[in-house]
Amino acid sequence: MTAFRIELRRSSALLLAAATVVVGALLLWLLADEWTARWSGLAYLMRALLFALVPVALAAGAWQGGRDRRAGVTELFGTVARPYPQRLLPVALAMAAGVLVAYAALLAGGSVQVAPYASYAGGQWPVVVAVGAVALVAAAWLGMAVGRWVPSVLTPPTLLVFSFLGQMLSRLDNGVLLPVLATPSDLATVAPEFLAAQGVWFGGLAAAALLLVASATVWARALAAAVALAAAGVSSAVAPATAFVVSTDGATLVCADGEPRVCAPRIHAAVLPALTEPAREALRTLAPIPNAPTRVVATDLGWAPVAPQRTTDVLVVDLRFRLNATGRFEAAPAGLRTILLKGAGTQSCPDPAWGFERDVAADQAATGWVTGRPAGPATDEYGRLGERTLSELKALPRPEQLARLAAYRTAKVRCDRDPLTALTTGAPR
Amino acid sequence: MSGPGWARWELLYLRAREVPAAAALLPVTMLAVGVLANASAGPSSTAPAVVGVCAALLGVAFVGTTLGSADAVLEHTAAIRWWPRRTVHLVAGTIAVVLLLLAVDLAGPSLATTAELVRNTLGLIGVTALCASFTGSRLSWCPAAAWTLLAVVAGPRSSGAGQVLSWMLQPADARTAATTAALLAVSGAASYILAGPAGLRRA
After folding, report:
1. I need a labelling partner for A86 at 20 to 30 A (CA). Which of A36, A232, A327, A333 fits?
2. Cβ-defined contact of B62 to A157 (cutoff 8 Å)
3. Is the ipTM of this complex over 0.90?
4. What is the pLDDT of residue B1?
5. CB–CB contact B150 A19 (8 Å)
6. The pLDDT of residue A246
7. A53 Cβ partners below 8 Å, 6+ apart?
8. Higher pLDDT, B45 or A237
9. Distance between CA atoms of B153 and B50, rounded to whole angstroms?
10. Cβ pair A30:B154 closer than 8 A
């Protein structure tokens, strides 16, 4: 214990902790838009920090690992009547303690931005962060092993740059062997088997690196290589093909009291109080249209597995890029109404065969009809086309107008027909 | 001066700063960066600009480790005009890094425009030289590395403060980024050339 305390001060553990906290805290602050108000958001950001923190840990480890040989004191220390592994263990533990305390401090700092606002505490986010912490320890120890092997002052910057570039250039999207774990959606959660495989890999790597650091014989080094290879093999074999699955808890819809129903995923339940009233007002506005929506669902449209079925019954609100640091809508109620009524409560079709321009013009006309405002900026071609379509539509008798809008909504939901044609000619006969 | 005495002084200066190792390994590592970037080049790969910045950081870090000797305090006591020597050292190191970057850029995948490569090298060497004059040379590359990691992971920003923060990722014609790099280069070079490397302790 005394040796551990001495090494905490003597080794590069404090340097490592300071660098980790500074770089990590600045990144948490710079990327605040992407994680606030959700525990899982913070957890995956803690893993994204590893882009920078793993290179830092490797470099600091390499600096520590090469110190004795650079200073020319290995012979002196060799005279100590203790076996080599016993002398190195306190150093390795001090480095691990430094990086772990720093990572925990970052988590604590980040939770200040989450705890007051998170509407959903469940999920396995602590495990996601814990695996990241193991990866950091493995990086620090691996750096020590490399530094002991090549004790040059050039080793730390070389390791830093190449590990960083390697991660940035890696084409393995969410590979099981990579420290960084990027979530495709707020409603996704990492598969438990994937997380377990990562735990096996980084745990094995840390053990192998520690063996390398403390090794005094060729056999110990061979054993370390075998452990690392076995860990890599086992985790690659057991890892599922897709890292992320739908979060059954977080993606479950919770609805505001009363009718018509206005729902949001549990992880985003904080949007409901502000959403409910504008959403019901939008439903009332759309009600005259024959196939008007009867309920509102807020979700993340960016990830196919959670995309809601396309139906005219549901008005879907995309939550992406629309929430602020407290997990609520950035837009004021008036802005929310505009979002809800866009395209008479429809979503765009992916990759329309008739081109986005006709989609945009039709959307502007339909939006203009519903909101009673001009169709849009009539400065470009689509704006003028939308404006013309809207004035033609308004010249028709009202039942025909509503029928045209219903045809347009059907076309938008099915994505089998040009919505502008639907708006100008009505339902196919 | 001429003759073996002159050459010996030069050699001792370079050896005291471990320049031979850095000079020998820098082209090798730069080549490795080029190979890495080439192997992963593709439509979905990271922007080449990031590779360019990382390569510049690597070169600057190597130069940074050579900015001081094992005992800077002892050197300060020598009755030698240090500032011309430090100037030559810093300028030669910067030119070497820029030339290697251009070589990688020409031979392998295009990393960035020449102006961007020069700006990034100058700015990063400025940060490194500034740090060397305050905390010594051996870890003088750390602030430049931290800044680069931050900028690349957080991504380029377009706001005023964001441009200053991510200056090394801005396009060549970004005025704020160029000014930031120039300020860093001038202050770092001035501080290092006038004050020399700090000599706190051996690591």
Report:
1. A232
2. yes
3. yes
4. 47
5. no
6. 86
7. A20, A23, A24, A103, A136, A139
8. A237
9. 10
10. yes
Whether the bond between A85 and the residue before it is cis, its omega within 30 degrees of 0, is no
**In what order do the strands lie in the sheet containing A295-299?**
A253-255, A262-265, A295-299, A314-318
Mean pLDDT of A116-144: 90
Give the closest residue to A243 by CA, choosing from A131, A328, A166.
A131
- All residues of chain A having their beta carbon less than 8 Å from the beta carbon of residue B57 are 157, 161
- Which tokens sit at A189? 């959660």
Rounded CA gap, A19 and A52, in Å? Answer: 10
Q: Are B141 and A157 an interchain contact pair (Cβ–Cβ within 8 Å)?
A: yes
Interface probe with B: pick from A154, A158, A162, A170, most Cβ of B within 10 Å:
A154
Best of A12, A168, A170 to disrupt the B interface by mutation (most B CBs within 10 Å)?
Answer: A168
Q: What is the pLDDT of residues A317-333, one digit of tens each?
A: 888 777 777 777 877 87
Counting as low any pLDDT under 70, the low residues of chain B are 1-6, 41-46, 200-203
Cβ-proximal residues to B29 (8 Å cutoff; 6+ apart), any chain: A158, A161, A162, B58, B62
| Long-range pairs for A403-410: beta carbons < 8 A, 24 or more residues apart | A403/A290, A403/A427, A405/A289, A405/A344, A405/A366, A405/A369, A406/A289, A406/A290, A406/A291, A408/A344, A408/A346, A408/A362, A408/A366, A409/A289, A409/A291, A409/A312, A409/A344, A409/A345, A409/A346, A410/A291, A410/A312
Domain borders along chain B are 4-195
| Residue found by looking up tokens 């202050």 in the block | B187
- What is the secondary structure of B60-79 as a DSSP string? HHHHHHTSS-S-HHHHHTS-
Query: pLDDT of A28-43, one tens digit each?
Result: 999 887 777 788 889 9
Backbone angles phi, psi at A314, to 5 degrees: -110, 130
A152: number of Cβ within 10 Å:
18
